[in-house]
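Q: Please design a sequence for this.
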């Protein structure tokens, strides 16, 4: 397969992985605390309900919600089938790019230009990044998922690979109901528990969702303004650098010493310039810092990935996802 051009990569900003609805999530502890396993699902629900009440969720909300929660074996099947990503990155990107999605993204960016301009002023995140995530996550709000989120996070919390994390997500889902942001029938999303047009997990919703349309509710399903503003808020808090690019493609000098590069340590752009690194088009930014990124190895294109790129990795920890955006 021929490698896409750099312009094709940038067009991937409005692509979509329709089958992989991802979401920004709170960082999990390095090691989950040991917890005795409940004897059955009903016992797990009772324990999680008590934990929610201790965290401030009203007993009335817990009493209403818990009897409706069910285990969903299909969720465990889907969770077990997530393979480690092994495809070459260009194959990954080629699968994500659709000319129709790119065109729709451009149309929607123009349609919501006033909102996106306001969000850029408020949060410092460019509109194209917000629209890119919108397209990547749900095809601009068209693929939201139809799993009951309480069922999903309870199923994975009781009998999943990341039980402690999903137990916390269950408590945060109850917080959303308690706060009145959503009603039980609206709390639907992907098989992994991600919700709304930009696929927030319950914990991310609690911490980063905003009411951008002023109706008094944070509605990531029906309100495009709330969904896009919430993503902008997340990226801003994740460290998106106001006024700086996410990064850029670069050229390396002949004889570049790859072994001397610390791929984890950001350097100021000025230091990269001193090492002979030049922009593939234009010039390196005057301010900011970046790490070297060679997603296809030293024979492929090379990028300097700035703080904006690292913010995208907090939205989704896949380098390929962030590069697509």
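A: Design:
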């Amino acid at each position: 397969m021929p490698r896409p051009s750099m312009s094709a990569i940038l067009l991937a900003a409005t692509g979509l992985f329709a089958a992989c609805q991802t979401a920004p999530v709170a960082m999990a502890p390095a090691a989950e605390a040991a917890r005795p396993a409940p004897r059955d699902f009903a016992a797990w629900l009772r324990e999680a309900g008590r934990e929610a009440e201790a965290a401030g969720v009203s007993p009335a909300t817990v009493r209403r919600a818990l009897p409706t929660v069910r285990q969903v074996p299909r969720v465990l099947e889907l969770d077990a089938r997530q393979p480690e990503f092994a495809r070459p990155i260009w194959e990954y990107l080629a699968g994500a790019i659709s000319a129709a999605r790119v065109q729709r993204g451009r149309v929607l960016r123009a349609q919501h230009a006033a909102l996106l301009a306001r969000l850029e002023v408020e949060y410092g995140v460019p509109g194209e990044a917000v629209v890119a995530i919108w397209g990547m996550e749900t095809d601009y709000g068209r693929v939201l998922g139809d799993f009951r989120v309480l069922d999903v996070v309870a199923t994975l919390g009781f009998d999943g690979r990341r039980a402690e994390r999903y137990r916390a997500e269950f408590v945060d889902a109850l917080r959303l109901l308690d706060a009145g942001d959503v009603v039980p029938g609206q709390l639907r999303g992907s098989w992994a528990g991600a919700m709304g047009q930009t696929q927030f997990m319950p914990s991310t919703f609690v911490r980063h969702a905003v009411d951008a349309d002023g109706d008094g509710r944070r509605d990531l399903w029906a309100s495009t303004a709330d969904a896009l503003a919430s993503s902008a808020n997340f990226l801003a808090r994740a460290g998106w650098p106001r006024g700086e690019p996410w990064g850029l493609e670069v050229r390396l000098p002949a004889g570049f010493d790859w072994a001397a590069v610390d791929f984890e340590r950001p350097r100021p752009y000025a230091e990269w310039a001193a090492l002979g690194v030049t922009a593939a088009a234009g010039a390196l930014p005057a301010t900011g810092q970046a790490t070297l990124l060679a997603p296809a190895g030293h024979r492929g294109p090379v990028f300097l990935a700035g703080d904006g790129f690292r913010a995208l990795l907090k939205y989704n920890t896949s380098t390929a996802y962030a590069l697509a955006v």
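Q: Thanks. Anything notable?
A: The first helix runs from residue 6 to 11. The longest strand covers residues 247-251.
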